[in-house]
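Input chain follows. Return structure tokens only.
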Amino acid sequence: MKTIAVITGASKGIGKEFADRIAEYGKVDEVWAIARSADKLEALKESVPYPVRPIALDLSREESFREYASLLREEKPFIKLLINCSGFGKFGAVTDVPTSENLNMISLNCAALTAITQESLPYMGKGSDVIQIASVAAYQPIPYIGVYGATKAYVLSFSRALNREVKGKGIHVMAVCPFWTKTEFFNRAINKDDGKVIVKKYAAMYMPSQIVGKAYRDIKKKNKDVSMYGFVANAQTLATKILPHKLIMSFWQSQQKLK
């Protein structure tokens, strides 16, 4: 039976970093790299240390889940590692973002992650791991990034609960909660057409290498269900657990000069 790692959102950013550094996790026979861009997935063959199987799918479309499930039934691999990195965010008031885009964000960040996870679990077993990309934004309501934050709260809650459900099968699920991270995320999050600048101050900006390095170390700690890198990220998360969220939201709006 072929042992594989499955990585969604593998063509860029944190997903690509996970793929390039897969050897830090361990040995697999093949990496199934999933994203929309076939060309970028093909390019992974030059940087990933194990054989790469490019799978060009648009995970915002339900047909993609059926294609993935069909491929699993055909190949019958053992999934040693699943990493769900696909997702995006938008900066702006809910009413300033098209309804279709907000719904697409929910679909990709929540529904696709759930579907890929659920289709994968029957092919996982003792020693398998799941890494889900959530966010520090999962811990608090964030005006003007509200839909994105809510989707990541779902990812965090779903991942921690699932970790308990599959523990008896020897499967470990861990949510990764990055703070601001220097990736292509901002290319889509910022609407350059309307001239509105939502985020004016970044308390810290980390690199994908830092997030991924910490995640690969933490996934080996089988009692750990959340991975978070950086002092600022941990301090802010602690504050959200101590202070009223009304105060946290007011501070955010004041910091960013948002009414």
